[in-house]
Amino acid sequence: MAFIGAGVGSLRTRSDVCEHPRPCRRRGRAKPYVCSSRSLSGAQEQFRQQQGDGAATARSRAILNSTHSPAVEPWILMPGKFDALHLGHFQLLQSACRLGTPVLLTFSGMGKVLGWDPRRRPMLWEAERNDILAEWGRKLGKDIRCETLPFDDIRSLSPEQFIDQVIVERFHASGVVCGYDWRFGFKAQGSADTLCELAKPRGLQVDVIEKIRMHELEVSSTRVRELLETYGDVREAKALLGRYYRLRGRVVAPSDSIHLLNQWSGSQVHVDGSKGLILTDIVNFFPRAGRYETCITFDGRTAPLWGAARLCRSALDEQQDRRNMDLIILEDAQHLWREDMGCATVELRNWIEP
């Protein structure tokens, strides 16, 4: 998958040259925080001897037993949700790559623990996430590692315990790169400033990336969702993502289309699917209903196809029917149907009309 967007150089906010071998800095401030220049292993060992084993609970130690042996190049952790993989995340990766091997640390089960809507779909499906990270890794010349921890296992840790048990003891990381608004620890007690303070005696490098703006918009996954869901503004979303937003769904056989449309209850716009090819079971976040210019790729076909598609949001009572009934109707595309068709990817290029 080609990465479309601003080049690496345009995302930099300051020089790559570090003034100190163990920087703990916050981008945008006049003077960076500075950590101890002792070796990482020595600083961590001294801290463990000073603190003893009482800082961690027995339960947390059993859960967070270390499984990682330090590599030749130090690991730099990037904790977060990474829902959309936007250009802000790419800048975090740039910073991490300058310090060592970048490691994305995500937490599974957050939605269930925090009470998020179970119908909330991710912005990316797994295969696309892997493709994007592989492309970013090629651009940066680094292999990007991904690690996941159950959120329920670390939610009760204090900020100090999170640093010691997760960052230092489990992953043996030598540094952390995060956004200015990252929170961690029990009830989000820890902030980026807390991280910098705790990093000093542990010999950890920290780089905090300040707010990033593109086209006068703050780059965030929440903002991308808002642009897509409220306005259908796929062009502004592309400016924040660095690529066009894509949807993934299952192609419905024409013989089943009429039955599917009879079940479907959409918006007040009349939908004619008689000549269209329908996609259902959309796996990721569904934007505003309407008609879009699209680039479509069917599984098993290398050449993409261009055309118009109508996105139809289900108006079923979601409390009674939790099925994913959102539809994508590829206009005048029924002649493309083949028996071996499975799924397709629809890239949204431009909004045409409601």
UniProtKB/TrEMBL annotation:
State the Gene Ontology BP annotations.
Answer: FAD biosynthetic process; riboflavin biosynthetic process
Record's keyword annotation contains ATP-binding: yes
State the top-level EC class: transferase
The domain of life is Eukaryota
> Which residue numbers delimit the FAD synthetase domain?
79-223
Q: Which Pfam families match?
A: FAD_syn
GO MF annotations in UniProt? ATP binding; FMN adenylyltransferase activity
Give the matching CDD domains. FAD_synthetase_N (cd02064)
- Claim: Protein biosynthesis is one of the keywords in the record: no
Keywords assigned? ATP-binding, FAD, Flavoprotein, FMN, Nucleotide-binding, Nucleotidyltransferase, Transferase
Pathway as given in its UniProt record: Cofactor biosynthesis; FAD biosynthesis; FAD from FMN: step 1/1
Provide the E.C. number(s) assigned to this enzyme: 2.7.7.2
Supply the name of the protein: FAD synthase
Q: Which organism is it from?
A: Porphyridium purpureum (Red alga)
